[in-house]
Design brief:
mainly alpha, 5 helices
């Protein structure tokens, strides 16, 4: 495909991106230029959940919160692999690979189960 044809095909997309970017910059600039700026001590005060903050903003957070978040993401992402496997399973059965694919999924589930049991034994799933 010649370069001029390729550029002609993508020209509407480039124009759309340029117009969208230009409008976004224009709206932010207009809001900054025309918007009211009346800073009061009340507006400049920190605000969190409708209450005045108490204590320092930088507090130490236990590692357990991060560990639970990472475990959630890890197991959640691994469970997402079940859906594509289930969708293409019948195609593998038609090709005669059904038993192999089922065995591979059991290996995958076993690895997940080992990780889950390890996290459970280490009390990583306990919320205190």
């Amino acid at each position: 495909m010649p370069l001029d044809q390729l550029l002609q095909d993508y020209l509407p997309i480039v124009i759309l991106l340029a117009v969208a970017t230009g409008l976004a910059i224009l709206m932010v600039a207009l809001g900054h230029i025309l918007g009211p700026r009346r800073d009061t001590p009340l507006k400049l005060m920190p605000y969190e959940s409708g209450m005045t903050p108490i204590g320092p903003a930088m507090r130490r957070i236990p590692v357990r919160f991060y560990l639970i978040a990472v475990l959630f993401i890890l197991f959640d992402i691994e469970v997402v692999f079940f859906m594509p496997w289930a969708v293409v399973f019948t195609q593998f059965v038609k090709q005669g690979l059904g038993l192999f694919v089922v065995a591979e999924m059991f290996v995958f589930i076993a690895i997940l189960l080992v990780g889950y049991i390890y996290a459970w034994k280490k009390d990583a799933l306990e919320w205190q």
